[in-house]
Amino acid sequence: MSNFGLFGFGPDGWGAVLLAGAAVSICAAVCGLILASLIGAAAARAKLLGGPIARTIAQAYTTVLRGVPDLLVIFLLYFGSSSVLSSVGGFFGYQGFLALPGFIAGVLAIGIVAGALMTEVFRGAFLAVKPGEIEAAKACGMSTFLRFRRIVAPLTLRHALPSIGNVWLGLLKGSSLLSATGVAELMRQTQIAAGSTRLPFDFYLAAALIYVALAVSSGLLIQAAERRYSRGIVRR
């Protein structure tokens, strides 16, 4: 079979396997982005509006997590959870091995790490909103929730979108680390295919092209979102 045929979707091709791995990578990155956004919003609020204790906790979280490698966090969560769960199981008489599934541990890890980045993204985006725009909403008699929904959130998101795009691309690349816990994402499937066919260059090049295609597609979506949230803004 030719090298080109190895990437087909026939019985001897690896195309479907690579695309399935890419789908797992995308799913992990999406779940990680959702978790990172929730954590980032909460930590950014703590930094901006919280008391001294909340600000200290948020600052410690962002400082520590931005300085620790993603892979190390994955291992800590994966093996740490196994120790905790096995101890809890032993307390109730269960003698087997317990651990979080590799996918869940990996998503939690990359989401928690990305949450530290999203904290600064949201904090900086909120500070970029002009105070006069918020004061005008107050002057119109908007409630706190309505003011947040119609003024604060859209303006903050407009300023945050470019950086959110960077965090998303980081999560997409970081999803490759889930292979360390046995998750069959794109890099794991590529490693299997390369080992089975003894054509590592061909399959790693194919994986690189898939990642580039995902990055380009993501960039186009982010640009479309930026245009939507920048309607009415004069570009200079």
UniProtKB/TrEMBL annotation:
Residue spans crossing the bilayer: 14-39, 71-92, 98-118, 151-171, 203-222
Main location: membrane
CDD domains, sorted: TM_PBP2
Domain (ABC transmembrane type-1) ranges: 18-222
Membrane topology: Multi-pass membrane protein
Annotated keywords: Cell inner membrane, Cell membrane, Membrane, Transmembrane, Transmembrane helix, Transport
InterPro entries xref list: AA_ABC_transptr_permease_3TM, ABC_transp_permease_HisMQ, MetI-like, MetI-like_sf
Subcellular compartments: Cell inner membrane; Cell membrane
Superkingdom of the organism of origin: Bacteria
Keyword Cell membrane: yes
Family classification: Belongs to the binding-protein-dependent transport system permease family. HisMQ subfamily.
NCBIfam families listed in its UniProt record: HEQRo_perm_3TM (TIGR01726)
Protein name in UniProt: ABC transporter permease
The organism of origin for this protein: Bosea vestrisii
Highest classification ranks of the organism: Bacteria, Pseudomonadati, Pseudomonadota, Alphaproteobacteria, Hyphomicrobiales
